[in-house]
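Q: My labmate handed me this sequence with no annotations at all. I'd like to see what the chain might look like in three dimensions before we decide whether it's worth expressing. Could you predict it?
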Amino acid sequence: MWATAVGVARVRALETGRENALFRDPLARAFAAAGGLWPSSPPPGDEAARRRRLAVSFSIVIRTKFLDDLLRQASASGIRQVVSLGAGMDSRAFRMDWPEGTRLFEVDTAAPLRFKASVLCQERAVARCERITVAVDLREDWPGALAAAGHDPAVPTVWIAEGLLIYLPEDAVELLLARIGARSAAGSRMGLTLGSRGVIERFGAEAAPGSAASLWVSGMPDDPVGRLAGHGWKADSHTLRERAAAYGRPISTPPQREERPGGLISAVRR
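A: Here is what I predict for the chain of 270 residues:
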């Protein structure tokens, strides 16, 4: 359901228009417009639905900033190989400053990559690093496709799986992590976003058929840091609330149990 990626672009476009934006994504509006999601549609009459929509949008903004920072830190550490899994309308290759020699692989199915290419051509966008697209379904042999595209597992990689794992059943998540680990040299880094079981259950029960929330299936494990340790990663977890406060966007409502443990994960390959 790659149209969800266009919805994420719409959120990023709205954030970009803020005076105190946490990031700037000049291409987001073009992706949203081409996908029929610009200008903003009026909020639904259902107040609960409106609140859910705002909550999802807020989480997208915070996770984008979190992963931007992780990528900058990885680049500063000397990593020059980036892989974005389920890349969607991610425009980091175009909007972030990358050190010379950086290669960024965008892995996704053919349809969203074609749509994205048409918008990038229309906007005459120029990548700030070597950008390599890899058209493959993550349920298939994506490691083979990535290797064929030039990814080198012998040197460190920074991996990003943003808004992806929540759509995969638990066995598929485990396989994805195992495959990432098999292609990660020591010192590689990884950024993941996870959905809490409470949010999945609450949003999923009220979601319209075919909507993004109706497709959420995988909640975070009780101990994501321990789970990743079993895959060879030293991980740190952060809650949305923690990161939002650090970014100057504190959440005013009281903490809820479903916010623990953290759904924003940074990890280093041991």
